[in-house]
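Here comes just one.
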Amino acid sequence: QVQLVESGGGLVQTGGSLRLSCKASGNIFRVNPAGWYRQAPGKEREWVARITIDGVKTYEDSVKGRFTISKDYEKNAVYLQMNDLKPGDTAVYYCNAIRWTWGNGWGAISDDWGQGTQVTVSS
């Protein structure tokens, strides 16, 4: 059973920055790609960013140029630097290890999502 613990969220004004952290039990981030997701009130959870084992980073269009995902192999942790935050970024943010499968594309590996970390951006 994987434990995922997200932290670093908070309340910021439009244009502000936050750095989210995610630590996992075991070595799941050392041997798998990692991703950040978010879920806004009343909406489905959506993918935000991912980083592969060899460091290739991909972002959802609305966060490109503003968010940066990174990974620390030694600490088995993943981070999300969020700059120029907008009210539309308000959501609970989650991390997970991810994998790609034929037919389904990229998806979360663990069904045991963490509690997430709340990000609220005021206008």
